[in-house]
Specification:
The chain is mainly beta. The protein is built from 3 helices and 18 strands. The protein has 4 domains: 7-64, Nucleic acid-binding proteins (OB fold (Dihydrolipoamide Acetyltransferase, E2P), Beta Barrel), CATH 2.40.50; 74-135, Nucleic acid-binding proteins (OB fold (Dihydrolipoamide Acetyltransferase, E2P)), CATH 2.40.50.140; 150-212, Nucleic acid-binding proteins (OB fold (Dihydrolipoamide Acetyltransferase, E2P), Beta Barrel), CATH 2.40.50; 215-277, Arc Repressor Mutant, subunit A, CATH 1.10.10.10. 12% of the residues lie in helices and 38% in strands. The strands form 4 sheets. It has a 5-stranded antiparallel sheet with strand order 3-2-1-4-5, with no helix packed on it. It is elongated, with a radius of gyration of 25 Å. The N and C termini lie far apart (65 Å).
Length: 278
C-alpha cells in the first residue's frame, strides 16, 4: 500500500500511453502511475525514481516528481490560491491545490495571503487535508528536547513578547524579543537552540548557542560588528535604547549584558564615546 502524502522510491515497471507505472518489483500487483509530464528525460525499465504520492482530481493515488512545500504530518508556509463556498485551496507546489475547510481555518483565509498549515490525512474521507489551527497538532506534555539542544524551528507569528515558533515539528516555543537581533518573519525556517524548559513546560529558544557551551551569543555578535567597523563602535551602556536597537538590533539589557561579558574577558575597552576592540 502506497503511503499518501509522503515520498517513496519505486522501480519503473513499464511504460504505457498514460505514463510510467511504478512499483516495488515486476511481480507486484500494486502499481502507481507517474504521468508522462513528470517522467525523467531519460530512463530505463528497472530504474528507481523518488516520487511523491498524492491524490489526483478523481481522488486516485498518483505519483509526481514535483516537490511539495509540505509533507504528511508536517507544517508548511503556504499561499492561499482560491477561496470558494466549500473552503480555501492552498498552493503547495503540486498541480492539485490543498483543501482547507472553513472549520480548519484559525481565521478566515484570503486569496494571496500566506498561512502556516499542517498537512494530515482525513480519516473520514481518506483525503489529504490542511489545517491552520496548528496548536491541535503540537504538544508540550512530553518534551523530546533538552536544554542546549540544536533544533529546527518554524516561525509562526510575532508578538510584543517575541517570536512564537514550532520546534522540530512537535512543540511550541518562544524566542523572547531581547534574544532577537535579526529580522524574523512568519514562515522562516531556522536552526536554533533550547535555552530553557520551564516547569510549566513552556520552552524558551534562542538563535545562537548559549550558556557554558559558547561565548555569550550577543557578545559574539558585537565582536563581529566591532571587527567589521574597524575596531570601534560609537555606542556604550549610556546610549539610549532606541540608538542601540537601531544600530545593533539589540535591547539595551542584552547589549549591556554582552559588553559586560566582553569587558570581563578583556576583549574590549569601555570608553566615554563608545567601545573599542582590544
Amino acid at each position: 500500500m502506497f503511503e499518501i502524502g509522503k515520498y517513496t522510491t519505486l522501480k519503473i515497471l513499464r511504460e504505457t500511453e498514460p505514463g510510467l507505472y511504478l512499483g516495488n518489483d515486476s511481480e507486484a500487483e500494486e502499481v502507481i502511475l507517474l504521468p508522462h509530464k513528470y517522467k525523467p528525460e531519460s530512463f530505463e525499465i528497472g530504474d528507481e525514481l523518488k516520487v511523491f504520492i498524492y491524490l489526483d482530481y478523481e481522488e486516485r493515488p498518483i505519483a509526481t516528481t514535483l516537490e511539495p512545500f509540505v509533507q504528511l504530518q508536517s507544517f508548511g508556509f503556504l499561499r492561499c490560491a482560491d477561496v470558494t463556498k466549500h473552503g480555501a485551496f492552498m498552493d503547495w507546489g503540486l498541480e492539485k491545490h490543498l483543501f482547507v475547510s472553513f472549520k480548519e481555518q484559525a481565521r478566515p483565509m484570503k486569496v494571496n495571503n500566506w498561512y502556516i498549515v499542517y498537512l494530515y490525512l482525513d480519516e473520514q474521507t481518506n483525503r489529504l487535508t490542511g489545517s491552520s489551527k496548528t496548536n491541535q497538532f503540537l504538544q508540550n506534555d512530553h518534551i523530546t528536547v533538552e536544554t542546549y539542544d540544536e533544533v529546527e524551528i518554524l516561525v509562526t507569528h510575532l508578538t510584543d513578547k517575541g517570536a512564537n515558533v514550532i520546534i522540530n515539528g512537535q512543540h511550541k516555543g518562544l524566542i523572547y524579543l531581547e534574544d532577537i537581533f535579526e529580522d524574523l518573519r512568519t514562515g522562516d525556517r531556522l536552526k536554533a537552540y533550547i535555552k530553557k524548559i520551564r516547569e510549566d513546560h513552556k520552552i524558551d529558544v534562542v538563535l545562537q548557542k548559549q550558556g557554558y557551551r559558547s561565548i555569550e551569543p550577543n557578545a559574539q555578535y558585537i565582536l563581529d560588528e566591532l571587527k567589521t567597523a574597524g575596531g570601534f563602535l560609537s555606542i556604550n551602556d549610556k546610549s539610549s535604547p532606541e540608538t542601540i536597537k537601531e544600530l545593533l538590533g539589540l535591547s539595551k539589557k542584552s547589549f549591556k549584558k554582552a559588553i559586560g561579558s566582553l569587558y570581563k574577558d578583556r576583549l574590549i575597552l569601555l570608553k566615554d564615546d563608545g567601545i573599542e576592540l582590544i
